[in-house]
Write a structure and sequence with these properties.
The complex is a heterodimer of chains A (240) and B (235). Chain A is an alpha/beta fold and 240 residues long. Chain A is built from 9 helices and 7 strands. Chain A has a 7-stranded parallel β-sheet, sandwiched between helices. Chain B has 12 helices and no strands. Classes of the chains: A alpha/beta (240), B mainly alpha (235).
Chain lengths: 240, 235
C-alpha cells in the first residue's frame, strides 16, 4: 500500500493510567463521523483497553484490535514492531481504506517512544495526578513527541499539582513542540487535540507530514562510530 | 555477508522478527501447572517433536533448487508451495498456524530488507498466503548462504531459546539458569540438526516424506491459550 493510500499511523504512548485509551475514545467520538478510523491496542496483560474502547461504542468493534506483546510493550513499539505492524496492515486490509489508525502503547515509562517504522507521528500522554514534576524529568516522549498531552487538569487542585508548572517545564523541554493541557472528563480540550490530529491527517494526505522521532531512550555508539539502533536490547534485564 | 555472521543475525533475538511475543505454548503449559523444574524437559520435548519438524522444513526450504539444472523455474514456485501444504498438514491447530504465519511474516520482512535481490524470497513473499516460519526461515538461511544443516540447527536453537526467554517472564527464574539449560541441550540440538538436514535431503522432490510428529498436548495447549483471557504471549 503506498504512503498516500494507507492510513496515517498515530502512536499514543505514556505511563499507565494517564488516559491514553480515554483520549483515543474521545478522538474517535469527535472524528469518527468524518474519518474512517481504526485502533490497535497493546495491553500488557489483558485486552482491557480494546474492550474499553469497544464498550465506548465509538467505533465498530471490528475496527479495534488487540496485540499481545509478551511482557514487552516497549519492545513492541520501538525495537521490534513486527506484531504491531502486522496488526495495522491486517486491520487496513480487512477494514480499509482507513484515514487514521491509532496505535496505543501498553502503559510504560518515560523512556517509551514509537519507531518511525510503526508511527508516522506520536502523542505522549501525562496526567496531573501522576506528579507535576514529570515534565521536568524529561525523556524522549516528553521532550520530542509530536504532541504532549497533559490530562486530568481538573484533578490538579485535589492532588496539589500545578498545571502552570507542568506546561512551563514541558515548554522548556520541547523546543517549540506543542503541549495541550486538557480535561477529558469535564471541560474538554479534546477539540484542540482533534484539531491537531486533523492537521496531521491533512499533511499526511498532502505528503507533507514532518514527524519528530523521539529516538531511543539512551543513544549510544558502537566502537565503529555507527549509530546502533537497538539501545533497548543491551539492557533487557530491566522491568517493562 | 559472511555466512557465520548471517547465523548470528538469525539467532539474535534482537533481530526484529517478532519472536519475543511467543512462548512456544509455555504460557498455557504453566497455566496448566507446569513447574519451573520441568521447563527444561518441556524445551527438550519440543526439540524432539515440533522443533525437529520445523527444522526439517527449514532445511528443505534452504536447499537451493538452482543446483538442479533445468528445473529452476518450476521448482522455484512449486517446491515452496508444496512445503507450505505439507507443513499445513502437520499443523492441525489453527492458533499455531496463525503463530507460524506471524513469525514467518516477520522473518520475510527482515529477509526482504537484507536480500532485496533474492528471487526465491521475493517469489515466496509474493506467492504464499501463509508464509509459515519454518519455510521463511529456510529461505532467509538460503539467501544468506547457509547450508541446510545450519538452517536446521538455527531453527532448533531459536525454538529452544524462545521458550527459555518466555520462561524467565512466566516463572521465578534466573536467566542465567535458562542459559545453562540451553547450553546443556547443545548435544540434542546438534544431533537433531543433522537428522533434520538428512531427512530434508532424503525428501528432496517428495516433501510428503518430510518428518511428521504428532503433538496433541501442544495442540490442545495452543487452543486453550487462544481462548484464554489475560495472556501475555500470542502463542
Amino acid at each position: 500500500m503506498s504512503a498516500e493510500r494507507r492510513a496515517l499511523r498515530i502512536g499514543v504512548a505514556g505511563p499507565v493510567g494517564t488516559g491514553k485509551s480515554s483520549l483515543i475514545a474521545a478522538l474517535c467520538a469527535t472524528l469518527g463521523a468524518e474519518l474512517r478510523l481504526g485502533v490497535v491496542t497493546n495491553d500488557i496483560y489483558t485486552t482491557e483497553d480494546a474492550e474499553f474502547l469497544r464498550a465506548q461504542g465509538v467505533l465498530a468493534p471490528e475496527r479495534i484490535v488487540a496485540v499481545q506483546t509478551g511482557c514487552c510493550p516497549h519492545t513492541a513499539i520501538r525495537d521490534d514492531v513486527s506484531a504491531n505492524l502486522q496488526a495495522v496492515e491486517d486491520l487496513e486490509a480487512a477494514q480499509g481504506p482507513l484515514a487514521i489508525v491509532f496505535v496505543e502503547s501498553g502503559g510504560d515509562n518515560l523512556t517509551t517512544a514509537f519507531s518511525p517504522a510503526l508511527a508516522d507521528t506520536q502523542i505522549f500522554v501525562l496526567d496531573c495526578a501522576g506528579g507535576d514534576d514529570v515534565p521536568r524529568k524529561g525523556g524522549p516522549g516528553v521532550a520530542r513527541s509530536d504532541l504532549l498531552v497533559i490530562n486530568k487538569v481538573d484533578l490538579a487542585p485535589l492532588v496539589g499539582a500545578s498545571v502552570e508548572r507542568m506546561v512551563s517545564d514541558a515548554g522548556a523541554r520541547r523546543d517549540g513542540r506543542p503541549t495541550l493541557a486538557i480535561d477529558l472528563r469535564g471541560s474538554g480540550g479534546i477539540v484542540d487535540v482533534a484539531a491537531w490530529v486533523l492537521r496531521k491527517e491533512s499533511a499526511w494526505r498532502a505528503g507533507a507530514l514532518v514527524s519528530e522521532d523521539p529516538g531511543p531512550p539512551a543513544p549510544h555508539h558502537t566502537p565503529g562510530g555507527a549509530h546502533h539502533p537497538h539501545a533497548h536490547g543491551v539492557d533487557h534485564a530491566h522491568a517493562h | 555477508m559472511s555466512a557465520s555472521v548471517v547465523s548470528l543475525l538469525l539467532a539474535d533475538a534482537r533481530t526484529p522478527s517478532g519472536g519475543y511475543a511467543h512462548s512456544g505454548s509455555l504460557e498455557p503449559a504453566v497455566a496448566a501447572g507446569l513447574r519451573t523444574a520441568e521447563v527444561r524437559a518441556f524445551i527438550s520435548a519440543r526439540l524432539a517433536s515440533v522443533a525437529y519438524v520445523d527444522a526439517a522444513f527449514a532445511a528443505a526450504a534452504c536447499s537451493d533448487p538452482r543446483e538442479v539444472a533445468g528445473l529452476w523455474d518450476q521448482r522455484l514456485h512449486g517446491d515452496l508451495a508444496a512445503l507450505d501444504a505439507e507443513l499445513a498438514a502437520r499443523t492441525p491447530c489453527e492458533p499455531q498456524r496463525l503463530a507460524l504465519r506471524a513469525l514467518g511474516r516477520g522473518l520475510l520482512r527482515i529477509g526482504r530488507r537484507l536480500w532485496p535481490a533474492d528471487e526465491r524470497l521475493a517469489a515466496y513473499a509474493g506467492a504464499s498466503a501463509w508464509t509459515p516460519r519454518p519455510v521463511a526461515f529456510g529461505l532467509l538461511a538460503s539467501a544468506g548462504g547457509l547450508t541446510p544443516a545450519e538452517a536446521a540447527r538455527l531453527s532448533l536453537y531459536e525454538d529452544a531459546a524462545g521458550v527459555a526467554a518466555a520462561a524467565v517472564k512466566l516463572l521465578p527464574l534466573d536467566a542465567a539458569e535458562t542459559t545453562a539449560w540451553l547450553a546443556s541441550l547443545a548435544g540434542e540440538i546438534e544431533a537433531l540438526a543433522v537428522a533434520a538436514a538428512e531427512a530434508a535431503a532424503r525428501a528432496a522432490g517428495s516433501p510428503a516424506d518430510l518428518p511428521a510428529t504428532a503433538t496433541p498436548a501442544l495442540d490442545l495447549l495452543a487452543l486453550t491459550h487462544h481462548e484464554s483471557e489475560g495472556k501475555l504471549f500470542v502463542s
